[in-house]
């Protein structure tokens, strides 16, 4: 088991290196720091000096990979790649183009993100599983058909409309919850209810449909027939045989997103004014702050790869076929 | 006669503009044609498509998608109209604005700008203005709209007028539909008689009732829109007084194109890499797996955001390459499609690799090896035809995903160019409108309805396609 | 007293998405079973025998329904019961054993849970009593170390053990009727014999009525007291087993019985010439990787040093159970699998070191026929393209017109029609497809054909025809066959010599008659002992 985890981690390294190089190429080679400076400074006719100064302030005035001006020590380290990209491996995100420390911002803003994303994730999955089981219980009936049509309708609606609709009805028309905003501590609950509900509702269509398919796939397997031939009642077949088997693909497929929950949701956070990492990223995108976007790309990849590793581990935990072989 | 001549002259004097995305949509339509031709040849594929089109939901959603595609196609025939000749110069100058054939169809909607917001079917503006009575007294009230309801002699007739015109549209639509359906039924009966005389048994027929109904509803919608838009703003006007319906129809092209091109642009990459990995295995497989794991480990939305930012930088620093607004928007649009495709091809590549692995283990591929058939030929004759269903399913499944994604991306500010009509841009603008009092709901509603119909049709259709082609569900 | 009485039972496929009217899959059938009796319901795939058994338990899939009939089990009418009452019949009065032991157990429950479930349900057992009962059941079905295996999951057991567990579940509540649906089809012959013996013994001990569903006449001969033959949803003949084998009345029954091996007549070996194909100590190994760096820590020795030879016009049968490495050996001869060692000679020339390009001329001379007629032809190509592919690739007949004539002649030779050239594979039955596969192989006029279980996916009545065709072609064209099979029963008709393979090595080889009548090796003997024999 330990050897397995170590091997998975070792596999992750070249991938992270690839991500790192790719983002580096995107941000510093496809576009030169000169061009970034020009866009940031806004004016098309900025002076060379202003550009140089802008670059110098942010450390973009160094050579890309090899600094021939430096002696052996700084040959590789005093470069843009080392300073801006390689340092990401130790989670040293440096400073944003505005001069704020990105690492501090991230550690501060990931908690509100988690406060929204975690309940949405847990409640969402539970609700979807319950709905899917309910539909499977009445499979091949008119209820099943109607539920599936409803699911398709629900998943054909853009998430934006769920948010707009929710805000309008719950907050504006009925004044049940504040329209947006955030407070730390227990006061947060008031602000979290609506985003969580909307996050859950927006996922019902797709989730229920997917889980129903997974459960139905199990329901058609031979061991279910064996269970029926034993004289097990239909309900017991569903809960004792289909559910535990169907949960395996469901659980292992959702594990991959768990680490990424820290990243928050761009849409929900910006609509509801929650100061999480999602809105942080969005603000950076809109302000064209390349340093932050770069950091978030790398962080996102790290969390995703972590999720993949967790997925593999979760298989060995919940599936006896994998655990013991 | 003279009139005809002048129309001809005008037609000849326009300057066609072909944007890159236009070329791609022509290719798309051509390949659809080719696809149907191929379909008529392979009985196995035909049988599977038959199950798709024999389901009522399948055929109805297909017609709706075709209708959207038709609008997108009309909106992709672009031209620049000539400007009035300046005196003393023989040189023809062309308008900086690029129009499409759809704009000609929708002339009624396009050239009727108001000053600001107005509600659907309204004849008064949404905002009060300072006005003067004939005798010079200044007062504040809602002004009449410049291009809506001007023909009404009595304002009280407003509701009645809408109803009468709707009825008229209904009659026209009923007539057109009746003609089309009548002709088709006559043609079908002739076909059947011929088949009977040749002794062929009639096959299970398509659900024609559903087809007729869908078709009639679409005709009705067209007639109604064209009739009422002559004198009203059916879906109101936006902040700067432009007709909302016009812009939401113009947004169809963006939606349809983004749904198809995003997958199509990166399809060759997914196919080549996926098949190579699954067929050759070994180090090729390792490299391909490394590439797609790396790319897919970057969260999609962040990759898109980062790439779009970089494209913005490119456009801003190379203004000389983008002389027209439409060209710039088109470049950005294609880049966006490509980037969207980049975030999704890895999934398809993974599926194709797995399926190729499976197919290349099958006996018929082994038999081909035993006959000494070359790799290229094996891939072309044996592997590719037997994994096309995966590509097809991915295409139809991704379509609705991308249409929905466009709205979100435009909202975030990394979507299509703000000058381009798109549902995402409409929603983005609608954000401030929703906090107004009274509520300005119509632009967001227009975007919602048109987008919902397309995505729902696409989802229903992709369900049927998946049912018919996915061996697991068969 | 009849325990089970089935009267005029018919089953229909309900009208659905793809068809307008309902279709009768089982036409009214009637039969009965007494306590302690085994009734064999015999038929080929699609004859409706499994549906009949599911209908008895009211376990038909949703698309199917019982159209008419009455089923009486120990005096109660099964179709009159409510679903809840039915649940107390299933597993307690009547139990089932299914074909596929790999999938018929719940993969995430332990053996104890799965056997325990049925006991808890019908007997209300729990705690130590339950555990004790489970252990005694496991002992009864012949699972050793029952105490240790209680906590095991299905995937830790072998196929035979799994089937024993399924039988234990079925017998846990002492049912009076056992329905066994192809209980041994998925198992290797040696295991098959053990399971059949177990069933027979339990039947005697417990006075079980058994409905044994099978397509294998050997199993019928060994087990049945009475036989009912089913075809196209109808029972065409019903008789006591002895009578049935002595004087089958229906023509189809005769065809079925005829498919049993005749052990008295053997092919005589053709005059020995120099060998066409020769294997010397051939080894095919697959690397096993382990650890952080995925180093090669060992090898799976699929083929571990086999030597054999085939003469011109000769058939060598390579016999072995699944996993013995016989198919891998065939693939190695075709150069589809690299050798780890040893030498291969074809017509006197060494061929194992040739590159794929150098091997090309040999592809014309060595051909192959695969087991599964459904996957051996590209479903997207029509018959013409399939047959012509090899001729074009190997430049056998570059001229299109002559090639077309050859194709037509080929189709007629294998018993198909010229009009079939434009059809696609899915339009053919399994037997026809296998004829196509034969036509494809002989299209390039090979000298040696590797037949990898060419008949094991076919129904018995078709099997004989395909084997007959192969033999005719051998005589006409002087072909040599390497016939890879697990089915000993077809060998006497077919093979001149036999090589028996186990765990990657050949344990015994010799003339067919000698191997079949006087086997030297223990494994060969146990294989032969497990082949069912016609009682007549």
Automatic annotation (TrEMBL), chain A:
Transmembrane segments: 9-30, 116-138, 145-169, 189-211, 247-272, 292-318
InterPro entries named in the record: BPD_transp_1_N, MetI-like, MetI-like_sf
Keywords for this protein: Cell membrane, Membrane, Transmembrane, Transmembrane helix, Transport
Domain ABC transmembrane type-1 per the UniProt entry, residue ranges: 110-314
Membrane topology: Multi-pass membrane protein
Coiled coil stretches, renumbered: none
Main subcellular localisation: membrane
Matching PROSITE patterns: ABC_TM1
This protein's name: ABC transporter permease
């Amino acid at each position: 088991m330990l050897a397995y985890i170590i091997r998975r981690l070792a596999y992750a390294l070249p991938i992270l290196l690839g991500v790192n190089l790719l983002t580096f190429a995107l941000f510093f080679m496809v576009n030169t720091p000169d061009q970034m400076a020009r866009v940031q400074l806004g004016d098309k006719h900025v002076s060379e000096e202003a550009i140089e100064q802008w670059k110098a302030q942010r450390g973009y005035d160094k050579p890309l990979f090899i600094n021939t001006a430096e002696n052996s020590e700084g040959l590789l380290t005093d470069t843009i790649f080392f300073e801006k990209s390689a340092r990401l491996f130790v989670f040293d995100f440096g400073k944003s183009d505005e001069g704020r420390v990105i690492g501090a911002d991230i550690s501060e803003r990931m908690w509100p993100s988690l406060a929204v994303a975690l309940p949405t994730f847990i409640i969402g999955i539970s609700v979807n599983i319950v709905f899917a089981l309910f539909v499977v219980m009445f499979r091949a009936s008119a209820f099943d058909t109607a539920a599936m049509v409803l699911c398709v309708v629900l998943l054909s609606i853009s998430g934006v409309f769920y948010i707009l609709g929710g805000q309008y009805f719950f907050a504006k028309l009925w004044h049940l919850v504040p329209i947006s905003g955030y407070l730390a501590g227990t006061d947060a609950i008031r602000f979290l209810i609506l985003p969580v509900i909307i996050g859950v509702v927006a996922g019902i269509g797709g989730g229920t449909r997917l889980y129903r398919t997974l459960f139905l796939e199990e329901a058609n397997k031979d061991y279910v027939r064996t269970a029926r031939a034993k004289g097990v009642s239909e309900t017991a077949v569903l809960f004792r045989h289909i559910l535990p088997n169907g949960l395996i693909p469901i659980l292992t497929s959702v594990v991959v997103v768990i680490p990424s929950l820290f990243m928050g949701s761009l849409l929900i956070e910006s609509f509801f004014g929650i100061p999480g990492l999602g809105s942080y990223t969005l603000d950076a995108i809109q302000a064209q702050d390349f340093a932050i976007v770069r950091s978030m790309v790398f962080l996102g990849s790290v969390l995703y790869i972590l999720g993949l590793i967790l997925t593999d581990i979760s298989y060995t935990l919940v599936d006896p076929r994998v655990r013991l072989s | 006669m003279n009139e005809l001549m002048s129309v001809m002259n005008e037609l000849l004097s326009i300057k066609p503009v072909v944007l890159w995305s236009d070329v791609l949509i022509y290719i798309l339509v051509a390949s659809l044609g080719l696809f149907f031709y191929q379909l008529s040849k392979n009985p196995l594929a035909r049988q599977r498509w038959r199950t798709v089109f024999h389901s009522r939901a399948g055929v109805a959603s297909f017609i709706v998608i075709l209708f959207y595609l038709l609008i997108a196609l009309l909106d992709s025939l672009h031209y620049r109209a000539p400007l009035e000749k300046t005196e003393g110069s023989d040189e023809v100058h062309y308008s900086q604005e690029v129009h499409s054939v759809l704009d000609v169809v929708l002339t009624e909607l396009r050239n009727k700008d108001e000053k600001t917001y107005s509600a659907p079917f309204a004849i008064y503006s949404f905002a009060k203005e300072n006005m003067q009575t004939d005798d010079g007294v200044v007062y504040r009230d809602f002004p009449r709209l410049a291009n809506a309801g001007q023909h009404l002699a009595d304002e009280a007739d407003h509701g009645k007028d809408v109803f009468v015109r709707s009825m008229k549209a209904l009659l026209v639509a009923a007539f057109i539909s009746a003609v089309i359906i009548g002709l088709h039924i006559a043609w079908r009966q002739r076909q059947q008689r011929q088949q009977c005389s040749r002794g062929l048994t009639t096959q299970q027929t398509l659900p024609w009732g559903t087809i007729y109904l869908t078709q009639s509803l679409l005709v009705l919608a067209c007639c109604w829109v064209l009739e009422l838009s002559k004198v009203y703003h059916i879906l109101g006007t936006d902040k700067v007084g432009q007709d909302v319906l016009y812009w939401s129809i113009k947004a169809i092209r963006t939606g349809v194109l983004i749904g198809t091109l995003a997958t199509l642009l990166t399809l060759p990459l997914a196919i080549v890499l996926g098949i190579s990995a699954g067929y050759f295995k070994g180090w090729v497989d390792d490299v391909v797996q490394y590439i797609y794991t790396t790319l897919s480990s970057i969260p999609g939305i962040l990759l898109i955001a980062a790439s779009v930012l970089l494209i913005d930088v490119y456009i801003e620093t190379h203004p000389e390459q983008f002389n027209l607004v439409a060209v710039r928007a088109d470049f950005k649009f294609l880049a966006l499609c490509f980037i969207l495709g980049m975030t999704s091809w890895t999934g398809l590549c993974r599926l194709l690799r797995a399926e190729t692995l499976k197919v290349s283990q099958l006996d018929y591929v082994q038999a081909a090896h035993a006959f000494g058939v070359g790799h290229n030929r094996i891939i072309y004759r044996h592997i590719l035809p037997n994994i096309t269903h995966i590509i097809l399913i991915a295409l139809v499944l991704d379509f609705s995903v991308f249409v929905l994604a466009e709205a979100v991306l435009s909202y975030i500010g990394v979507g299509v160019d703000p000058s381009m009509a798109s549902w995402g841009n409409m929603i983005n603008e609608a954000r401030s409108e929703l906090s107004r009092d009274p509520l300005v709901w119509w632009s967001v509603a227009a975007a919602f309805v048109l987008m919902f119909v397309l995505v729902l049709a696409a989802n229903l259709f992709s369900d049927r396609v998946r049912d018919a082609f996915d061996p697991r569900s068969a | 007293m009849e325990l089970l009485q089935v009267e005029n039972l018919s089953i229909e496929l309900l009208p659905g998405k793809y068809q307008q009217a309902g279709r009768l899959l089982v036409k009214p059938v009637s039969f009965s079973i007494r306590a302690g009796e085994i009734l064999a319901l015999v038929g080929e795939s699609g004859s409706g025998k499994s549906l009949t058994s599911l209908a008895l338990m009211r376990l038909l899939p949703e698309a199917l329904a019982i159209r008419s009939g009455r089923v009486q089990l120990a005096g109660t009418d099964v179709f009159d019961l409510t679903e809840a009452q039915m649940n107390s019949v299933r597993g307690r009065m009547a139990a089932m054993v299914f074909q596929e032991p790999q999938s018929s157990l719940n993969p995430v429950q332990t053996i104890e849970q799965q056997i325990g479930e049925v006991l808890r349900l019908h007997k209300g057992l729990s705690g130590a009593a339950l555990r004790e009962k489970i252990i005694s059941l496991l002992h009864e079905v012949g699972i050793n170390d029952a105490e240790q295996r209680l906590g095991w999951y299905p995937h830790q057991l072998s196929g035979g053990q799994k089937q024993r567990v399924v039988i234990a579940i079925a017998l846990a509540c002492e049912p009076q009727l056992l329905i066994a649906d192809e209980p041994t089809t998925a198992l290797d012959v040696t295991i098959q014999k053990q399971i059949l013996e177990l069933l027979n013994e339990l039947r005697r001990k417990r006075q079980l009525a058994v409905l044994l569903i099978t397509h294998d006449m050997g199993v019928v001969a060994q087990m049945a007291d009475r036989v009912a033959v089913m075809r196209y949803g109808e029972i065409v003949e019903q008789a006591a087993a002895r009578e049935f084998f002595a004087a089958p009345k229906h023509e189809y029954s005769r065809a079925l019985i005829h498919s049993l091996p005749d052990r008295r007549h053997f092919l005589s070996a053709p005059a020995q010439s120099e060998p066409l194909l020769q294997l010397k100590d051939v080894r095919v190994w697959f690397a096993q990787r382990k650890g952080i760096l995925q180093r090669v820590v060992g090898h799976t020795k699929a083929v571990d040093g086999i030597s054999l030879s085939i003469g011109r016009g000769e058939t060598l049968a390579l016999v072995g159970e699944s996993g013995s490495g016989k198919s891998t050996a065939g693939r190695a001869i075709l150069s589809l699998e690299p050798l780890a060692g040893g030498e291969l000679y074809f017509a006197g020339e060494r061929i194992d070191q040739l590159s794929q390009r150098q091997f090309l001329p040999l592809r014309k001379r060595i051909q192959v026929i695969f087991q599964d007629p459904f996957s051996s032809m590209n479903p997207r190509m029509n018959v013409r393209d399939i047959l012509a592919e090899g001729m074009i690739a190997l430049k056998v007949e570059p001229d299109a017109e002559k090639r077309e004539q050859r194709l037509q002649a080929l189709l007629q030779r294998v018993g198909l029609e010229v009009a079939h050239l434009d059809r696609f594979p899915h339009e053919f039955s399994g037997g026809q497809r296998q004829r196509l596969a034969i036509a494809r192989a002989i299209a390039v006029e090979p000298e040696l054909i590797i037949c990898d279980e060419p008949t094991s996916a076919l129904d018995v009545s078709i099997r004989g025809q395909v084997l007959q065709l192969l033999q005719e072609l051998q005589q006409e064209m002087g072909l040599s066959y390497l016939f890879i099979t697990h089915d000993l029963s077809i060998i006497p008709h077919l093979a001149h010599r036999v090589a028996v393979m186990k765990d990657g090595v050949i344990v015994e080889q010799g003339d067919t008659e000698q191997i079949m009548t006087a086997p030297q090796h223990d494994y060969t003997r146990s294989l032969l002992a497990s082949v069912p024999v016609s009682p007549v």
